[in-house]
Structure formats: C-alpha cells, structure tokens
Amino acid sequence: MAVDLLEKLRQMLLDMQHSGRLSYIDPGLYDDARTYVEKRKTDYYDLKNPLESRMGSLIIEEIGSVTETVQEIFSVRTRQILDLAFQQMEGQYFDKEEARKMLPEERAMYERIVSAIEECREALVHGEAAPFGADGAAAAGRSDEADGIPEPRGTPAVPAPRPVRSPYALVHIRSDVESFMGMDGRTYVLKMGDIVTLPENNADVLCEHDIALNIRLNK
C-alpha cells in the first residue's frame, strides 16, 4: 500500500503540474494519506530503537514523502482555484467543468474568495461605506464618533494580526517538553517519541537544546 499510495500521489501531482488545470481527485485522498501516515507512525513506535534501525529510517522517509507530496498537491490546487476565482471576477472565460472538480471544502474556499474579492472591489473602487458587510466595523466607527473622536471616512478597520508562517521541519522529539505556541499560531503539546512537523524556527530551537532531532529527508 505504501508504494501504491505514494506513486498515486506523485503521479497525480505530475499530472496537475503538466496540465495546469484543476483535475478530478478521489474525495478520500486526503483521508487516505492521513490514515497512512498515522499507521506508519504506529509502526515506527512499535520498533525497538527506531532511530538506530534501517526500518525506522525507511518509515520516516515514507512519512515525509507522503506528507510533502500531499502538501504540494494542496498548494497546486489552491493556486489553480485562485486563478479560477480571478478569471470569474475579471469576466474572463470560466470553465464550469473545472468548478465541478473541486472538493466540497475547496468549493467553499472558492466561493469565499470570490465574495471577498467582490466586496473589496466594491469598497475600494466604488467607495462602499461599509466594506465586507462589516456591521461591527460600522458600529465601531459610530461609537468612536460618539466619543468625540471622528473616524476618517473610508478608513478600513485594522485587520487582526495573522500568524507568522515559516517553512516546516520533520522532527523526532527526544524528551518531554511543555506545550508552546508555534510560529504558525498553533499550540503544540508534545511528548518524547513523537514524530511531528514543526515550524522550522521552533524546530531549530528544540534541536539546539537537544530536545528534538531534525530528520532531514532527501528530496
């Protein structure tokens, strides 16, 4: 199953990159990949001295290969969906057949992107008073004026800060560590023996303190 799944993922990725168009994918693809990764993690934990065995290295390589390929599939499809959203908003030719190839989650993302672009255009180009249906923002503006602090017309609300994104690294946790907030904004609760992907900056800190071992995979 390992070889079959990985080859299936890689072939799918190659087809996507070659065609440049959104294609049909098995609705259960992501679930199958997650199930495979969890099974291989269990296989790894069942080994005696996994870090010192050839089998342990092979399992880690399989986990990394599947994880990276699935992430790349997601990235390619997301870029293609963004292109479709811009095509629709710019009034270009839009292939409805491609829209039918989206997974339900992708379709929801697509519709939100199109809606956000339209609302932003209405706010900036046409000067709508309350962009993005921001009832809360409009109410906040009225409140500021009531306090004697006039708000400049057309000034958008300050967006909430977004988590800092960074590259990820696959690491093996060598000792228990207290929960912490990663550079990606997620909370990590780790224990000795875990194999996880962490933001590279966080992984470097744990490795420097000999808490984690960076598992560097061959591309």
From TrEMBL:
Name of the molecule in the record: DNA replication complex GINS family protein
Organism: Methanoculleus chikugoensis
Gene3D superfamilies documented for this protein: 1.20.58.1030, 3.40.5.50
Region of interest called Disordered, as start-end residue ranges on this chain: 136-161
